[in-house]
Amino acid sequence: MKKSIILFIFVLVCSLLFHHCSGKEEGQDQQKGVMTMEEPVIVKTISTLVKKSGEEKRARIEKSVRQVAALWQASDGSNSEFETFCTRSFIETEDERHLGFEKLSGYFEILNGNFNKISVDLQRTLHLDIGVIHPVDQLFGSYNPGAHLDDDLFRNKIAFITALNFPFYSLQEKMKSAAQWSGKEWAYARMGDIFLSRIPAERQQKFTEVNTGADIYISEYNIFMGHVLNGKNEKLFPENMKLLVHWNLRDELKSNYGTEKGPEKQRIIAKVMERVISQEIPQIVINNDKVEWNPFQNKVYKEGKEIEFHPEPDTRYAHLLKNFKALKDIDSYCPAGMDTYIKRKFDGEMEISQPEVEELFTRFLSSPYIKKVAGLIKKRVNRDLEPFDIWYDGFKARSGIPEEKLNKITRQKYPTAAAMEKDLPVILMKLGFSKEKAAFITSRVAVEPARGSGHAWGAEMRAGKAYLRTRVPADGMNYKGYNIAIHEFGHNVEQTITLHDVDYYMMRGVPNTAFTEALAYIFQDRDLELLGLQESSLGKEYLDTLDTFWSAYEGMGVSLLDMQVWKWLYANPEADTHQLKEAVIALAKETWNKYYADIFDVRDQTLLAIYSHMISYPLYLSAYSYGDLIKFQIKQYVRGKDLAAEIERMFSQGRLIPQLWMKNAVGIEISTEPLFQATEEALNHFK
Ligand SMILES: [Zn+2]
Fold first, then answer.
1. Neighbouring C-alpha atoms within 13 Å toward the C-beta of 132
2. Rounded distance, CA 525 to CA 523, Å?
3. What would the DSSP string read from start to end of 45-75?
4. Which among 256, 298, 383, 592 could bridge 605 via Cys, Cβ 3.0 to 4.6 Å?
5. DSSP E strands: which ranges in 75-162?
6. Across the chain, how many H-helices and E-strands are there?
7. pLDDT per residue as tens digits for the range 492-548
C-alpha cells in the first residue's frame, strides 16, 4: 500500500478531474446563482487574443480561453474583466511561457511539498505505534490543511493564469500525442491537469474525514488468534498472536502451506474472514483477548462459559457507504466524462478506462490456463482445493523455510525501526545500486514504527523525506513485518527517484499506482535474497511465473468485485448499510460462481470480499493486478540486465501515460500475453 494515495485522492479532488464544463446546464453552481460565461463573450475574447497574438496561436488560445471560461464564476469578475484578464495574462512567446512554467512549477512544489508535510505530521499519532489515540489526535489527523488551497488559488487568479497558459489535454488527446510530445510538452500537459474544477472545500474536507474514519477502523481491527478455536474448541494458534484483518490474516493463511495442521489453521482463518464479511462476527472478539471464540459455531466463551454477544453492527459497510456518499457528493462538480468516482478513478487517475480494465481482467479470469495451474496446485498440496487456496503460496521459494526461523533472523537483524533505517543503504547496494545512489536515496527515507500493517508515504518536494512505516513489535520485526517493509521500501525508492530524477517537477511520480506497486513487488520478491537466504534457483523462474499467475487470478477477481460493488452503489445510491452488505455478499458469490466455482468445485463463496482496501481505499484494488502484470513484464525485461540501472532508467521517465511509459520501459504495452506464454512454459516444465 502506498500512503500518498490519500494525498493523491486529495490532489485529484482539488484539481485533476473535476473540470467544469461550460456547456453544463444544471448543477450546484446554477442553484447558487453562479454565472456561467456566455458564448459571445468567449468568442470575442478569443478573437481579440488571436488578433493580438497571431493566427498561428489560435488553437492554443481557443483551448485555453474555453477552459478558463468554464472555471470562471461571477465572484471572479464581470464579462469585461474576464476578457481583460485573458488578454493580459496570455503569454505569447515560448521563452516567456517557459519562464512562467518554471516559476509556477517551483511554487507548486513549495505548496504541495509543505502541505503534504503538514498532513504527515498531523497524522503521526494515527499512523505510528506511539501510544493511545486521543480524540484530539483524531480531529487533527482528519483535518485537511490544504482543503482551502484550491479556493485561494482561484481567488488570487493563480489557477486561471495556469489554466490559460497550460491547457488541459484529455486522455484521448494525450494518447494521440503520446509519441510526438517532447519531455517539455509532457510537463506542460501535466501542468494543464492541475486546475480542472472547483470543488467546494467543505466537500473535500468531508471526504478526508470519512476516509480517515475508515482508515482508523481498518487499522485497529485485530483478531487475537490465540483465542480463536477450531470446530472442537481447541486452540491452534500461539497465545499472543494478534492479526490485523485482512492483511495479517491472509499472510498467516499463506504461511501455513506445508506446515503441520496447516489446512486446519487455514480453515479457521477463512471462517474468521467469512464472519467479518457477513458481519456475524461478535463485536466482543474484535481487538479483545479476554474471550474465546469458535467461529464455526459462532460461540463466545469467557472463562470457559458460553456468553451472549452482539454481532458487529455492519460497521464495515457503514464506512464503505460513507466513502461512497462523500465521493458522490463531488460528482455534480464534474464534467460529463468524469461525473462518477468510477470514471475519475479509472479514466482520470489510472488513465486506463474502467471498461478496458474489466475487459482485461475478464479475459484473464476466463483463461484455460487457470484450470491447469489449479491442477498443479492440487498435486502439490495433495488434496482437493478449498476456497482459501485462492491464496496458495506454495510457488514461493520461502514456503520451504519455517516461519520461526525467519522470525528469529528478522527480529535479530531489525530489533527497532532505526535498525532497519540504518540498513537501507546496504539493502540497495545488494540490489545493485551504487554506493552514492544508495546513500542519496536512503538519505531521503525515514523508517518509523507503524500502528497498522505499514505503508510508504512519499515526499512532494525535493527538500522532503519519504516515510517507511512498518510494524515493529517489542521483540523486534517479525518476518511478516519485514516482508511488508521491503515492499514499502520499494515504494519509497520509486517515490524518491520519480521526484528527484525526472526532468521536470511536473512529471514527478508514476503513470498510476500500479507502477509503484510493480516496483514494490519486485523488491518484496527479493526479501529472502536480501537476508542472504537465497534458495536453490532451480526452477525458481517457473515458480515465480506461476506465483504471479495465481496471484493475478486472485487479485483480478477481488478487483472485479470491487468494481461491481461501485457500479451497484451508483445504481442504488439510496441504499442503506444493510442493503449494501447484502449486495456485496451477493456480488461476491456471483463473481465466485462465474470464475472460481468450477475450479474449486464449490459455489457461493464470499471470501473475495475480505479485502480491507474495499473499505478504506475505494477502487484501489485494480492497481494490484495491473501491478502484477507490469511487474511481470518488467521482471522479464530486466532478467540478465543491471536491475538498479534499469529501475533508474524506467522510473526517471516520470508520469507519462501508462501505455507509453510501458512501451518505453520494456518495448511493449501492458498485456496478459507475456504472462500466459510464460505460464505455458512453466506448466510444461512441471509436467
Ligand atoms: Zn504497495
1. 2
2. 5
3. HHHHHHHHH-GGGHHHHHHHHHHHHHH--GG
4. 592
5. none
6. 33, 8
7. 999 999 999 999 999 999 998 889 988 998 999 889 999 998 765 668 889 989 999
> Please, what's the largest Cα pairwise distance for the chain?
88
**Ligand 1 centroid, distance to 330 Cα (angstroms):** 27
Neighbour count for residue 298 (Cβ, 10 Å): 16
Ligand 1 centroid to residue 576 C-alpha, Å: 31
CB atoms within 10 A of CB 256: 24
Q: How far is the CA of 519 from the centre of ligand 1 (A)?
A: 9
According to DSSP, the residues that pair with 446 across neighbouring strands are 467
Listed in sequence order, the residues at least 6 apart from 428 whose beta carbon sits closer than 8 Å to its beta carbon are 437, 438, 441, 442, 493, 644
Instruction: Give the pLDDT score at 32.
Output: 38
445-449 and 466-470 beta bridge pairing: parallel
- Per residue in 6-32, pLDDT (tens digit) is 333 333 332 332 222 223 223 333 333
Q: Hey, which residues does 244 pair with through a beta bridge?
A: 222
Identity at 529, one-letter amino acid code: E
What single-letter DSSP state applies at residue 21?
P
For residue 212, how far is its CA from the centre of ligand 1 (angstroms)? Answer: 18
Name the grid cell of 494: 520509486
CA angle 417, 419, 424 (to 5 degrees): 95
CA of 349 to the centre of ligand 1 (A): 17
- 302 C-alpha to ligand 1 centroid (Å): 38
Cα–ligand 1 centroid distance for 485 (angstroms) = 10
Terminal Cα distance for the chain, rounded? 36
Pairing of strands 305-307, 299-302: antiparallel
> Which pLDDT value is given to residue 197?
80
Element (H, E) at 673: helix 673-686
Does the reported pTM lie above 0.70? yes
Pair 286, 246: CB distance under 8 Å: no
**In this predicted model, what pLDDT tens digit does every residue of 246-291 receive, in sequence order?**
889 999 999 999 888 999 999 999 999 999 999 999 999 999 999 9
Query: How far apart (Å, rounded) are the C-alpha atoms in residues 685 and 373?
Result: 12
Residue 156 CA to residue 84 CA, distance in Å, equals 15
Give me ligand 1 centre to Cα 468, in Å.
Answer: 11
Length of the chain: 687
How far apart are alpha carbons 82 and 73 in whole angstroms?
A: 10
Ligand 1: centre distance to CA 546 (Å): 20
Cell digits for 657? 501515460
Asked if 162 and 194 touch (Cβ cutoff 8 Å), the reply is yes
Distance CA 331, CA 341 (A): 7
Other CB atoms within 10 Å distance of the CB of residue 568: 16
> What is the 67 CA–ligand 1 centroid distance (Å)?
36
CA neighbor of 468 nearest in space, from 448, 487, 486: 448
> How many whole angstroms separate alpha carbon 204 and alpha carbon 200?
7
Residue with cell 488468534: 225
What phi and psi values does residue 299 have, to the nearest 5 degrees?
Answer: -125, 145
**Residue 310 phi, psi dihedral angles, 5° rounding:** -105, 135
pLDDT tens digits, one per residue of 310-369: 999 999 999 999 999 999 999 988 766 788 999 999 988 899 989 999 999 999 999 999
Give residue 26 CA to ligand 1 midpoint distance, Å: 40
